[in-house]
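Schema walk-through. Below, the input block comes first and the output block second. Nothing else is stored per chain. Lengths vary across the set, and this one has 802 residues.
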Amino acid sequence: MARPRLLPLVLFAALCLFNQLELAHAAMTSTGSVAPSDPMTWNSSTTGYVGYSADGSLWVDGGSDLFSDDAYVGYNSATNGYVTISDGGSSWTNGDDLHVGYNGNGTLDILGAALASSDCCIAWFATSTSQMTVSGPGSTWTNSASIKVGLYGYGALTVSDGGAVSSDTCTIGSWADSTGLVTVTGTGSSWTTTRWLTVGKYGSGTLAISDGASVAVNDITYVGSGDTGFGMPSTSAIVFGPGGGTLATQSLYAAPTQLTGTGTVNAHGLLTDLDFVFDTAASSTQTFHFNTEPGQDVTVNLDMSDPGDVGVLGAGYYGSGSITIRDGTTVRSRTGCLAYQTGSVGTATVTGADSTWNLEFGLSVGGYGTGTLAIIGGGSISNSYSWIGKGRYSTGEAIVSGASSSWIHSSYFDIGSSGNGTLTVREGGAISDTAGRIGYYATATGTATVAGSGSTWTNSTSLLVGDKGNGKLGIADGGSVSAPSVSINSQSLLAIEVNDGSLLNIAGGSGTIANDGTVRIIAGAVPAPGAVCTPILAGTCGGAGTYHALGGTWNAVSHEFTTSPVIQTASGIPLGFDLATIQRVRGADTATGWTVGVSFLTPEGSAMLNFTATAAGGEVLADLQDRMDPGETVLGAWEFAATGGYTPGDPAYLSFDVGPGQSWDDLEIWHYDGADWTQFDAWDLTYDGTYASFTVTDFSGYAVTPVKNVWIPGDCDGDNRVDADDAQTLAAHWGQPGEWANGDFDDDGIVGPRDAAILAANWGYVAPTESGNSSGSVPEPGVIVLLLGLGAAMLLGRNGRR
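--- output ---
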């Protein structure tokens, strides 16, 4: 009978205990300048301030839930805001922007609790020094949009002891003079970004990973991504601390020196300062060891074997790098870049039948630096869109040469997008795209040459020769360019050399050419006198530009060009004739065997020309020979004088008979101004197997000489192969200051381990002909001993420094 009496007391005690638990669950307290002052009143529409006009603090624990729309921790200058979310079950849900340190300083600690937010910035203004900590098992920060750690000020984020952070994107050190530091440390500690992570954009950023922690980036990880024109510091880095850690990312953009400590990077794409060689199917999976800096031992595992999960492939991030695809290998990447940053150098060669680089999206040849691309010997590239000379002040050059060599675009193609771009299609190479744009933006200069029988450039929608920038297009020696419509802006030039059926095909003769610049039609030394050709197939010719004929006459109505007769003359013999009737001269020198053809601009009326072509000799020739390498000979050198019908600045076309067996790459043009020889940039230089031809705009002296062109990494002596001679040269200069000829292939001024690695990676490579593959070989035993010796020296050197 006593139990009923005890029941009210038990219920009362239970109720008291429940009330105590409920009070503990609702533990949210604040001190100082907090607005609204009672955090219990905050809801999903609240803009909350902790440290508004003075210092303020906010604690959320006991399983409490704090809600807000926007929040500022450390709002005004010189104020300090402190927020701590702790105890299991406690949380803060902020629907929109979260600022930890706005003008003032903010501190936010997540300790065994949870934070959910949209956009977050740690240290917004330069006046802010702020930090966040996510620490302990069960501590989470879920950010649905971007995190900025150090936007203009100093920001720090620490994830430790099993804490976990996730975000859509993140930038550490955003703008100039900002500093950002993210530390992920401890087993089980993690940070995941759905898209990209930038460690140092225009500011200084550091990502530190240690004690077994992991960072996962589902897209691109950039280290120091901003254009160096903004003063981008080189101090941004990923630092693997004690105990190491792992970064897993689809693509990594970083210089080797920006990865320090001991750790591992797993990536499906890589843009860095390395020399990549892809020559077998197995080479799509490669491992690189970065260990040239003190205390550096970073392993980068590159896996591009899955076509559905690949990232960037690029060479030249801050320094220099190269890509070689050969021996019928296919390489797939999402994007590609040669020379990403200002001052960088990147080269790529795709060579040999069935050697292919397939890109899902864009390829930059010269991002902000100097990029060079060669597609030769039947190699091919296919991608969506491309830029040669993408960024302002960048320089890009691409060559597509040889039958079956091709570059196929499913979208547009810029030669000079904002920078300087040069494209050469020759000897049967082929380009295709939707819209070709030469000199696209106002800062751009673009130059394209399509030369040689079978060389083609096909544009399926349009061709712009200069849009807002400056463009030049040359078609020669049987090359062909086609488009439904062609536009030439007021500062641009289209030049067609009519030899061997060179053609601009505009919709098969039904399309429109809008010429507001200059169209130049040229007969060089080859076409027979009186030959009639139609180098431009167009239905309508509009625009306010001009048409120039060199070496013949142009009929603007029929679009026909008739080649001029040729006057023969001897070296040093003055010649007089009327340019209205004759526009071609051929000069010969019996002593040297040199010959040269000159094609003049056709005047509108009678214009008597006094002209002399004299083969260079004596001190003038000796001065030129002094500038050449031993064993090289002058292929032709002439001094010209023209008065009367010629006006300085008018174009003239020179054709030097240099004979067969020359290579386009190995021809160099010189200009003599009456006192000195200097190299001459002949933008429209062509070689048809006999004649080296180009345009000049003044008559003084010109010459053609052969040059050595070193393209192959590892080739010291320029004999177009990497062999024992090159290894011996590198060994003889080991550890010494040097240049390419001494083995300094990475251009750092010292012959060392990276140079040996470059030589080893390209061992046995022989430059292909335009129609053939490279060939490889196995080092001879003596060379193996030499390379092993260098490797041992490298290892002993590293051990000695530890």
